[in-house]
Every structure is written in structure tokens, then in C-alpha cells.
Design brief:
By secondary structure, the protein is of the alpha+beta class. Helix content is 21%, strand content 42%. Strands 4-3-2-1-9-8-7-6-5 form a 9-stranded antiparallel β-sheet, with no helix packed on it. Strands 10-11-12-14-15-16-17-18 form an 8-stranded antiparallel beta barrel. A 7-stranded mixed β-sheet has the order 21-20-24-23-22-26-27, with helices on both faces.
Length: 406
Amino acid sequence: MTLKPYIALIILFYSLTNAVVKSQSAPVELSVSLFTDSGKIIPLRWQWQAHPPELILYNAEERISCTSIQKKDDTLYIEIPVFQTELRLFQGDSLWKGYWRNLYRMPVQHMRVEARLKTKNFNADTALANQIQGDWELQFDDSTRGIARIFWNCKTQQLTGTLLTETGDYRYLQGHITPSKLLQLSAFDGLHAFLFEAFINTCNPLSKTHLNGWFYSGPHFSQLWTAARNPKFKLRNPETLTKSKTSEPIHFTFTDLNGKPCSIDDELFKNKVVILQLMGSWCPNCMDESRYFADLYKRFASSGLEIIALAFEKSSNFEIAQKSLLKLRQDLRLPYTLLYAGSSQKTEASKQLPFISGLMAYPTTLFLNRNHQIVATHTGFSGPATGNSYLEYCKRTELRIKSLLK
């Protein structure tokens, strides 16, 4: 009896099985709605792959890979990297429902989530998109001002952007213009859920084009904003906002993640140039800055650079803060010193930092010479989403470090 029919059957079975596995493993794009308490939808884009399980959060060029996933019955428990937040999603055939949970808040803060297979994008109004790209002076109704930076990609038909303020940038925003000429730019990085919405009012000449709309953040917050072209508008110099109160070497002792005291006067830091990073595990701008500092440390530690991150946390309980900081250190693979410094409330944090005044943002950075005297301060952080602003900051910082290390 010939074996050929059996061999053919085995090959066919293997091919079909392999095709099924591949089809199940193929990633699918999801159109996601994150609902505020008032019912406003923050539109997002994610990608899901079943085998191995992975959820990717898309924010313009940013990709946040979530691989710590557990499934119980029909519910996925998805841990967001870096932050103490999670998604709980019930998988239906065509609709996923669930919640995003912010574990920094007590009681735990929730936002309702729905996800469907991605639908077709709007046909972009190319002329209008070209008209609104570039820099704008933006003002919120509480008088806070910033630079809104909008980019238009003709190939992807995608609008992206960010907002630069004196306390930090709003990271990676992405969106579109609806057929009714409504601009929508949104983001979700696991901690912040943002939506900028505005109707585009066009007049002639072009310089009088302006934007009026609402900004939504998280489940509750919203406020009006306007934007207009103003090439003369600039933010204040970030090196002038936080002041050093002494020309003497500074001293401090805080708690490391093992619960032991660590001082800048310890042997590890003696005669070292030190970057002192005032940050928090709950702060996306601090996450971006920490990634940059991790790279900086790897390049300059052998020449005498040390970095100390002082973490000011949402909880004044060390054990609770420790859990958040251990996760941040592991997920970001931070190679430098990370210490718990107390509460993130700025009035409380300022008491721990008697050598500076004007603490107004996390992150804030202090640059110390080998004698541990403050030679410069920098308030906020313009991360990679800001383009040239980020590149210019990196260039200035590296020149400063090289000069201090001489």
C-alpha cells in the first residue's frame, strides 16, 4: 500500500493548521473610544495580537507595547508599562468593552473603554491640513499659554502634534479633521488621556486663521482653549524659572528602594558631576526625561557623571511608593540612583529642597559640579515629541556635561 495519500493528507493538515495559527496571530487594528464621565469620546488607535498576546498603544510615532497580559474567563487584564495603571477588557465577537483603571488614585479612577475593528479613516481635507500645520500660540481659559505644534503627513494622511508649555510638553498627539472641519488630536500613554478639539475658523488673510475649542483630560477635566498664529510668542527660558538659593555645595539624604539612607556625600558621588532629577513615577514627562538620562549615563558615567533621581510620589507611604518606583526602574531599565524623597505636593517637596526656590514642575533638573554646587537649573522637559526643541535641549545638555567633566 502506497504512503503517498497519507503524506499528502499530512501536508494538507499541516498547511491548514499553520494558516489558522497565522490568521489568529495576525495583528488587528482597533478603533478605540475612551469615555469621559460626561460621555465625551476620546478617540484612540490600538493594535491587538492574540498569539503571543500583545496590545500596542499608538500615539503618533510612539508605540507602547503591553505584554503583561492575563486572561480570566473572557476578560483581559492588561498591565500598562511604567505606570501603576491597567486595562480590563471583555472580549466580544465584534466589540470589546471594559475600563482603564488609574491605581494612583484612591478610590481607583476609572474610564470606560470600547474597542472595535478599525474602520476607514476620514478622507482628509489636504488643503485645510496644510493650512493648520505649524506653530500656534495656544491659551487656555485659565490663562496658561503654550506653543501648539501641528504636523501634517501627506503620505499617511495623518495629523500629529504636541503642546509645549513651561512645565513640560503634552507628548505625542495624533488625529484628523472630520468632514465638518472639526480638528481632533488625542493621546493615551497609560496615565494621561487627552483630547484637543476645535472648529477651524478660516479667514483671509491666512494669518487670521484661528482655532477655538475644548481640551479634555481624564474622566472629569475640561476647559476652553484658543489658538492663533503668533511667530513672536516664546515661552520663558526654562533655566530661569527655578532658582538656586545658595552658592555652597548642597547636601541631602533620602531613602533608596531598599529602605536604606543614601546621601550625596556618599563615596559613590564624591568628586562627581551630578545631575539631580526631581521627578515622579506618575509623570510621563519624567518617563521621557529618564529615558534620555539613562542614555546619557551610559555614555558619560565612566568619565565621572552620576545621576540621582529624587522621586516625589503620590503616596507618602514608602511601601506604596516603593512598588511604583520598582516598576518604573525595571520597565525603563534605569542604570542610575533612584531615591524616594516624599510627597509630590509641591509645598511639601519644597521643604525637602531648601537649596532651591520656585519649584513649579516635575521634572525639574539641577546640574551640579564636582563640588556639588548648583551651576544650572532646568524646569520641565520638552521630550522627543517636540522635534527640534528636544534635539536642541539634548545638544545643550551634552555640551554642559562635557564642560563640567573637564
